[in-house]
Amino acid sequence: MNPWRNEEPHEREEPMTSKNYYDVTTWPVGNPFKDVGEVINSIIADIKERQNTTDVDNGGKPGAVIYIPPGDYHLRTQVVIDISFLRIQGSGHGFTSSSIRFNVPEDEWDGLHELWPGGSRILVDLPANDEGEESKGAAFYIERSGSPRISSVEFSNFCIDGLHFTPDGSGMHPENTYVNGKIGIYVASANDSFRVNGMGFIYLENALTIHNADALSIHDNFIAECGSCIELRGWGQASKITDNLIGAGFKGHSIYAENHGGLLVTANNVFPRGASSVHFNGVTRSSVTNNRLHSFYPGMLVLEGNSSENLVATNHFLRDHEPWKPFQGVDNGLDDLHGLLSISGSNNSVIGNHFSEVIDSQNVRPAGATPVIIRLVAGAGNFVSNNNVVAKDVHSTSSDSCFSAQVDALLTTEASDVLSVTAVMVDSGSARNTILDSGNDAQVIADRAANALRATPTIDL
Question: Fewer beta carbons within 10 Å, N or C terminal of the chain?
Fold first, then answer.
């Protein structure tokens, strides 16, 4: 007999199936393929009915898991979540570019391997929102009043697909407008320890709109081809946006936060075309570090509304031109004097960032202007140190292929003309700043009597 086993034989216990684990395809109420919203709401009602006592053996309301297997599930009824400890999970974020497909001639669609996103996919088929109330367009709506705040609601590993954009009166192809009134997840009330991990969001006017978040984690998601990707509204603290692949439309934000403290934005790869890459309004004592930010327009990182005591460090900024024909001529309305990084706030640190400005001087706006990289608009006591600027004047090109056009643009580093830029511009509304080794003497425009300056040394050739 094996000495590491019990001497006495015993029966193996059969595994228990938890009453708190639900599969939308086996739930007896509704048809998940026709309206998964009805099914999930019925499951939530069952959880609330069964877990109706707050204290049983030091427990009482453990919550539940709702599983969405791989497949296509139409959502025609908004899911309303008002319980804590709920996890909705799938088996694949299913992202694939709808924008590329919709800009391929329709007579070529038969030759494509797939036409739609896949994985565990929610198809947002909510009726048109004629009331104008933003939250009515949300696939998942979370709200609960009273104490404690709703906590530990998790979304993991499935796709929320808005399907189509709609005409906006601009004359642009309807599938390129980023407008349809649809939202993936809308959190209306104060919340604690929410998690959005491993998700796919596509073709939604707003992917994530979250109010009053505490200890929120938005991690490892694919959020792209949405009007706005992440919006943290109201106020919040101690949250993080990390390791995401993000790309908003030209009308919206890739990452936006207001009135937050202790927000960590790290290791995100932010794609171009969003009106901004990161936009802080009234955000304090937060960090934007180690991100790769790519944009076709100025205004990539904006700190406004007295955003103060923030750290902006070791990020890679790339600003170049839109190479894909369907979106050429579209911009965010800002000219090249605005700056890639704009600060209206005090005591921020901007340290060790790399800026690549690779544009055609013939397209600079206003014509003949010198583009600005870092602009201190208002506030005092900002510390700008050891930032590197590479500026090149290139001839812009275009292509019908989104993928090859952008890859070619990213990989082209051969010799080109030097582009004259202002590395740091300090407006009269900003003073007592320290600027060290972030541009040579000619590249820094600042009142030397009101700001401390040490220029980057130059080499005489």
Answer: C
List the one residue out of 400, 290, 297, 296 whose CA is nearest residue 351: 290
Q: How many whole angstroms separate alpha carbon 384 and alpha carbon 352?
A: 9
Instruction: With 0.90 as the threshold, say if the pTM is over it.
Output: yes
DSSP structure string for 133-176: -GGGGEEEEE---SSSPEE--EEES-EEE-------SS-S-GGG
Q: Indicate left, alpha or beta for 333 from its phi (over 0: left) and psi (-120 to 50: alpha).
A: left
Which of these, 380, 390, 389, lies nearest to 434 by C-alpha position?
380
Digit-coded pLDDT (tens) for 369-401: 999 999 999 999 999 999 999 999 987 665 555
Domains of the chain: 18-51+61-271 (2.160.20.10), 316-461 (2.160.20.10)
In angstroms, the CA 359 to CA 357 distance is: 6
Tokens 């904006």 label which residue?
302
Whether the pLDDT of residue 7 is over 60: the answer is no
Is there a contact between 32 and 73 (Cβ–Cβ < 8 Å)? Answer: yes
End-to-end CA, the chain: 84
Quote the tokens at residue 41. 């709401």
Q: Which of 71-75, 84-88, 114-118, 337-341 has the lowest mean pLDDT?
A: 114-118
